[in-house]
Amino acid sequence: SVVVPTDPWFSKQWYMNSEAQPDLSILQAWSQGLSGQGIVVSVLDDGIEKDHPDLWANYDPLASYDFNDYDPDPQPRYTPSKENRHGTRCAGEVAAMANNGFCGVGVAFNARIGGVRMLDGTITDVIEAQSLSLQPQHIHIYSASWGPEDDGRTVDGPGILTREAFRRGVTKGRGGLGTLFIWASGNGGLHYDNCNCDGYTNSIHTLSVGSTTQQGRVPWYSEACASTLTTTYSSGVATDPQIVTTDLHHGCTDQHTGTSASAPLAAGMIALALEANPFLTWRDMQHLVVRASKPAHLQAEDWRTNGVGRQVSHHYGYGLLDAGLLVDTARTWLPTQPQRKCAVRVQSRPTPILPLIYIRENVSACAGLHNSIRSLEHVQAQLTLSYSRRGDLEISLTSPMGTRSTLVAIRPLDVSTEGYNNWVFMSTHFWDENPQGVWTLGLENKGYYFNTGTLYRYTLLLYGTAEDMTARPTGPQVTSSACVQRDTEGLCQACDGPAYILGQLCLAYCPPRFFNHTRLVTAGPGHTAAPALRVCSSCHASCYTCRGGSPRDCTSCPPSSTLDQQQGSCMGPTTPDSRPRLRAAACPHHRCPASAMVLSLLAVTLGGPVLCGMSMDLPLYAWLSRARATPTKPQVWLPAGT
Amino acid sequence: WAPVRAPIYVSSWAVQVSQGNREVERLARKFGFVNLGPIFPDGQYFHLRHRGVVQQSLTPHWGHRLHLKKNPKVQWFQQQTLQRRVKR
């Protein structure tokens, strides 16, 4: 492990070399031997300079593709203005090599890094969906630093296929643990934009990252919104230092800026956490990020303490992400129970929007039902309304525990008369709160006096778990004991202590989609009988957690299905063909089908080629039909040449 | 409410054909599409492009819409529209 890299520009990397106080605490994570080994990150952008002297050794062709030209080579298109440097810059932040005497170092300097070239051409829903579902069993983390225009008047988000790519990523990616999508919150600060009007950053499936300056100030480009979860450093005014990373033409730069620079730093830190505990689900990681983000010295006028005592801001989410704390928490994190969703249709009749109205609803959070929620994660308000000048309307949501979250603040440049058509606003500010009680939606005209409008539909969507997350004890170390005996393929055969074997690791518990049991080992010729092995084995594909390998051994189910308590099986919209069929062969094609969890975990822990299996997904058509029956987010089209 | 600006249709389609790649290839040959491959790993959704269609248009292509709609093997399709995305 490298504690202090010798790279010549490391001294310029103020956000990780202890120059800034506090910094991102990356040295602390490195000192534990973490460097992103075995973790695969792909940067979805305008390409990656794969032969860059600081990237080539970590470059992963399996995590790369060119969807602009449909070939496997994501090399950027070179132009005099270097307009396609963005992806290479973002990639270097994650995984620039250490101790090679060149440039600086990436946060996860031993992670494998790929690049998807998809922004340098015509961008469609298909291109985005294909990019976000490239190799979902091989790539652990996708980092995206782009989105709809941050011009303060756009309301736009992913199309139907891209939304499906997110859904598939979190439910099937990474062997069912869920792909991690890290997203830059947006650069529209100058236009008073709000990242809740961006359907990518406000998706529950993405982990949205904001920026702060070295001095802990809100950067001029920063957008505030309730869906931002965490913050890392980036640039500020001209005198503030910027981010050091790789650049086109085998170069280095110390001038990478914007929220684009923040998301890859978070992606690298999350790679370190994933190395510390490879069995974290996508929701586990969001829980960890909430806990590992601190207000520190970040300055904002809107820091508030939410109902569970955490400070949260619309500028920074839960604050500055601390890599040391993130990996420490990751090592002892007990798996989060399955996600539950409780939808409350609050309003479905047209109601005039007065200058200020509050809509209150006493919510049971589906108490007594299979989807009752005790601890909140994401909260969404799905709204259909008309308004004479959309940007003048401020929308807020207050929880039963008294936390007020602004779903969208005024956007002076948004003069649209379209209103919001089934737009989903999201807030992370109620995390871990108890949702039972009165929720209050506030609609307030903060602009032109004669504005008018009508609220047609309001649905409150609560996501969370049945567990009281504030009362959970700290778990044991996940990889509490060392493997003391391995076979020729590196798989663990015996642990030093009472741990469960899973692939190469010894674990204190079996993660979701696995069950623990004892396997008897027969003695070979000339050997004495070995003690029984404690191992983690795969649940049936229909289960989230289980007590055995049969489809009737489920103890909890994935979100798409419900548990039949008597049968012990998960009932859901799956096809008869949905059972994964394992295939122990190396993936023959760059876009391999979904694989079984064991195989992908082996790939994570061994760093070897991904083994592929097959699975059949819920037919998209049924889902699409439902989506078409219900109006979706409005698409706002901007003039060409912007 | 209609969008402020009409969508700009491009010369590619997403199609769902549950019979998989062979059927999509047959469909592509029949109507002059180029099969750019699966969208998701399950092999049911495919990206098709047509070189004979203008690259950007304010109206969807009527003829191909009709072909795809009438084909019983096509469960769902969507002509793609231009998405404006910016780097941050």
Task: Describe the fold and architecture.
The complex is a heterodimer of chains A (642) and B (88). In chain A, 15% of the residues lie in helices and 27% in strands. Chain A has 9 helices and 35 strands. The two termini of chain A are 46 Å apart. The mean pLDDT of chain B is 92. Chains A and B meet through helix 3, strand 5, helix 4, helix 5 and helix 9 of A and strand 1, strand 2, strand 5 and strand 6 of B.
Q: How far is it from the N-terminal to the C-terminal residue of chain B, by CA?
A: 29 Å
Task: Quote the average pLDDT of chain B.
Answer: 92
Compute the CA-based radius of gyration of chain A.
24 Å
Tell me roughly what share of residues is in helical segments of chain B: 10-25%
Q: Give the end-to-end Cα distance of chain A, rounded to a whole number of Å.
A: 46 Å
> What gross morphology of chain B would you assign?
globular
Shape of chain A: globular
Oligomer: heterodimer
The tally of helices of chain B reads 2
**What is the chain-wise order of helices and strands of chain B?**
EHEEEHEE
- How many β-strand runs of chain B? 6
* Most residues in contact, chain pair and counts: A-B, 59 and 36 residues
Q: Could you tell me the strand content of chain A as a percent range?
A: 25-35%
Short description:
The complex is a heterodimer of chains A (642) and B (88). Chain A is an alpha+beta fold and 642 residues long.
